[in-house]
Specification:
alpha+beta, 26 strands, eight-stranded antiparallel beta sheet, 997 residues
Length: 997
Amino acid sequence: MYPDAAKPVYRRLRQTLKGHQEQARRNLEWLRDHMHPYFFITMKEETEALVQLASGLHALTHSRRMILTDQEKKLILACLNLPGTVYASFRELAEREISYAEITHSYEPIPELCCELEIQRFEFSPKDHAEIAQAAPPEVPASVRRGVARAMRRMYPEFDFTELDRVLGLLWLNNEHYMRISPPERVARILWLYQTARRHDGLYLDVENTEDVVHHRESRVLFAVGNPPRPGFLAQTMEVFNRLDLGVRRAYCLTISTGVHPYFLGTFYVTTRSGELLQKDSPLFRTLQSELYNTQILSPGGPLYTEYVAQGTMTGEDATLTNAFIAFCHTNLAHNQPDRFDLGEVKRAFYANPNVALALIRLFRARFDPDRTDREQAYAAAREEVETLVANYNTGHRHLDEVRRTIFRTALLMIEHTLKTNFFVPEKHALAFRLDPAYLRQMGEEFTSDLPKGEPFRITFFFGRHGAGYHVGFSDIARGGWRTIICRSADDFVTNANTLLREVYVLAHTQHLKNKDIYEGGSKMTVVMDASDLADPALVTQRLYKLQYGFLNAFLDLFVTRDGRAAHPRVVDYYGEDEPIELGPDENMHDGMIELIARQAVKRGYVLGKGIISSKRVGINHKEYGVTSLGVIRFAEITMEELGIDMARDPFTVKITGGTNGDVAGNAMRLLLERCPNVAIRLIVAGSGVLYDPEGIDREELGRLILKDNIDAFRPERLHPGGYLLLRRQRKREGLRELYRKWVRTANGVEEQWVTTDEFHREFDGAIFHVPADLFIPAGGRPETIDDQNWENLLGADGTPTCRAIVEGANSYLTPRAREELQRRGVVVIRDASANKCGVISSSYEILANLLMNDEEFLALKASYVGQVLEILERRAEDEARLLLRRWKEAGRARLFTEISAEVSREINARYAELFDLFRRRPELLAQPVYRRVVLAHLPPLVGGTPKFRRRVGRLPAKILAAITAVEIATRTVYHRDWQEDLEDTVRRYVKREFGA
């Protein structure tokens, strides 16, 4: 029996439900009349959500937001259209991967409310890149293809229809549901946007003013980004619209995978808050463009964004430039004084003084804004303002004021000495500043005393959303590798950023000494990337590609020239010459990026074309041919011969750093096993761990791994008694302790052990010092591993070194003082600038092949060409090794090998520079047959022996011809003739000319 007291309540509920049903019917009619028809098309499979919306629309009178669907991979919200509501939702979802977002507004306010309805739909089902890359072409229904093709021909006739099926298939693989529910016009628009953005290097914005199907005038903003930053990119995009008072009426945002990285494709229907359309030639559109493009560089986190950009004190571009000032000042000051100028202190200097930051920005804009006609006068006035502001900076805290004045003066030096920048190029993913290195002189010895002596020819600073870097070159024509240091913790990033400039400076200086045999001087590019917020290795790689792609295009913004001037009209060029700079692969430079760099240089018209980078697929792959290791081992053979060991016959022991699968270390071990039947490689220290065997690592097992696998694939049962295998990547936890696996061979067999973190690092860091061997080859590892503080660890208890010779296969593995001290204790040290020079020589000959042959010609002749290059490498290594020994003996064995090595490099480089200047002043000399023979003598015989290639030599750029002629003469006069003989010959000819009959 139902209680009487409950009956009235039940009757009221039934009456209320009847009323709700009637209200839901009216709400549904209102939705039909006041929502865009696309809303019902895209929601046609969301019946339950639409029923809930119709039933509860009036509830928004007392609740600003209603959840219509909340599932693992889908969220649909209804809310009142208030300023910032879309941005707030995106901010809440910033950490989630949004594969599709749709925003729709009603045309009129909700009945009995003053606000319009806003529907927000989010999907969280991005496709895995590997899944897309490996998928077979899908079967797109013929009706869909026909409809899209017809719409495309009508709307975008300039579309490249040869790509239609591929791009249509890509979209289908990523989001079949979107394709099935979308009208052909919308699919056609997305396909056109994707193709157009790819043609624009992954960054594109356009606006179309149009009328929708119910005759509402609106502006359609099309925005696409290749490999957009994450997390929170969509939230940042909506913040830009919100900050610029552009109301987003509707939006359809799709993120797809290309099989390599994601691509964002967004369509936004907007009006200004006052209801006006967005005109493409308006200042508002140009501001929107700069702010949206700037999302690629400016992170929305931190006080600079939240306190100054969001509040309108700075534009997004102003904040990006301020961040670049911070990174430049930190990296230029901290390498010498890390405690005084740590990153936090440099940031606080700018955050606490936005007036100074804004004055510096005004100065920078006055100098480089291409739209200004009064740059010189405006710059002079702004410079006086900044100098006064910095000089008078005074908060009453003397020490802090001096620190901050130094920081601001460094930013001022950056502006004064920048010769060109891409800051005003709209479609950029990163910033680049080409500087006159003279700014280092003005910083003074206090901040540069730790840098090698000798001023570079150029310094280029790069800044991106997740990293910064420098390219340092010591010659007009220069080449050297591009390495990226991936920092997986905040401490790691700050530590590497502290020493960034010094590291790249030292590496470039060493490279310049090393490059003495080729026409390109030395350079290096080093970048630090912050990956501290990423745990997924795939996302780390994605960010790596984004940063490298951004820096590449920033590089090309500056160095693609026409008649000596930067080709991009938005780059103001105060330098005004072509700069042939070559790059090479180094740490964290993958094959795919190498090929992309070459293609992009050709596409954008770089002076060297695909010759911008070596080790391409159509090239001389260093790892395949072991070109660097060839020189290292040749130097080792000649060095050990001097110590009484014939490596081809005698027994001797080796310890080596670098992995069995690495380029230099792997090929060095391969050559040792091939050439030295009695070698015992006792120790390998690699990134994956330590492999030690007192009797010599099993040759057969080692051969199985070389150039194929790392030492963690070594089978422990192949160890001899006393040997062990310590593994970095095989770990486990016991309570709070992290333990590392170690295999030890005892008299009873192989035992598994687990060692603590302290024990692991003690063994890992100490092995290279304590294990004795005749020859030590550092062929991998970070620069300055053996430094001023730890070099003595290479000495035994009685002061005897644990190795007789060190041949540096890795760059700057030992500091200069460590080299010197070890040599004074009897170790023969062949430094990197000599020992591992053959890699860069090979790269130079690859670039020359790029300049003289097309791909088909090179591939047809590759075996012969590479064979001749390998002969040149062995000859160049032997030339220098014999010269070092000769000069060492002539000095009574009292001089240091590294001192002689540096002397030889300086002599060749000085002679090269003198001759290069001569040939640049007198280019007509290079047309004479005798000088053409010099050029041909530098090249592999195949070039001179092939008429069509010989003819092409004369068409090489004048700078390159001058450089080749100069280096060939310079190297021959040093390696094969005494300097004094050259001087006597010069004096004899001068006297004969001036005083002869």
